[in-house]
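We keep the chain:
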Amino acid sequence: MEKEEMDRRIIRIELFEFDVPCCYHHARGKLENCRYGLLKLTDEGGETGWGECLMSVDEKVFDLVNWARFLYRFQKSTLAQALDTVRLCRVLWGNVKADLVEMALYDLMARSQRKPFVDVLGSSGGFGSFGSSGSTGHSRHSVNGSFHPETAPVRSVGGGSRSDAERLFSSRVRQVAGFGHAVADREFPVSGLFQAGRELHPGCCGSLLDDLRNACMLRKEGMALTMHKDYLLGPACCLWEHTAAVLGADWLEEGGNPEPVRLAPLQAGERIAGTGFQLDQPVLFEKSRAYFVVI
């Protein structure tokens, strides 16, 4: 990213609260009385970046203004300064708030560069480029030549013997992805056939960005993926679906568990920039329950 883009200042910070009676989180089960936060950052060039998080679950009283006070730290910050602030304050704020802002900042970067979100994340995460310049349909191969899943071995989940190379690969992926360690308050199994590379649920590897990195890593190794919508409803839902399309993964939006209605469909286009989420201000105000702004 060019220095001049990193030096653009954030001139408006908006947080919208959306209330959902219940949703399904694969790692945490059924969640009730959920309050979602949708963060919208606007820079001086007029570009926007979006983030999404679960601000609270099953809390009778919630004060949006008090929860969102940390956002004042980003007032008039450049993009580079904002990223540094997230890194420095993560322990103080907690992962939910830090991940919310980090997602919005990466989205802002991706839209400024007119690149898919996963490409910008890849350049910072070290797993290369996965962006698609073609249709957003869920094809089985990458159009940019960065990988060719159709020629890679896909492992069976129905049983049977596995080669030594496959067992080594499974062990390495578990270690990198955090399997066998406490991640996001959940203990992941390390024994038996490796299933997480087959069906991916958001929120199971830590933040959504961790989930994206995990999905890209598994797909490069030739895993056939199915990515579930689960509890996502806004920019995170569009981002997760767009990543499924880029990686050639199957996309499942409806299941046997309660899923909140998404706020907006994935934008259609030859080349989606950022998360692919966009919702007009009047619609946001109409659908949201509360609003917080820093200008």
